[in-house]
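hey so u asked for the seq, here:
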Amino acid sequence: QVQLVESGGGLVQTGGSLTLSCAASGYTFSIYTMGWFRQAPGKEREFVAAISRSGGSPVYADSVAGRFTISRDNAKNTVYLQMNSLKPEDTAVYYCAKHQFPRASPSRVGYAEWGQGTQVTVSS
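ran it, structure tokens below
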């Protein structure tokens, strides 16, 4: 059974930083692209970043490119999202997600399983 458990969210001031973690279990982590998504109140869930199974070829939403960094540690079955220069508009629940197909390239779509989310709040 696939489990994705996010952690690391919290309250931070504008310009601050946070690092989110997502611990995966129940499948062969190292052969799947992983992604991060977020959902703000009253808005649809949106893509944030994705990373290939080897840790290369990251893809970012335009709104976070240059501020956020996605990475993974296959030995620890964990994917990370380092968030710098945070803005109030980054406030959302952040979810990690597992791509539905093994060995797929990083993409903005195609994710089949999700964690429960972690709240990130950026105060102005």
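The longest strand covers residues 18-25. DSSP finds no helices and eleven strands in the chain.
lmk if thats what u needed
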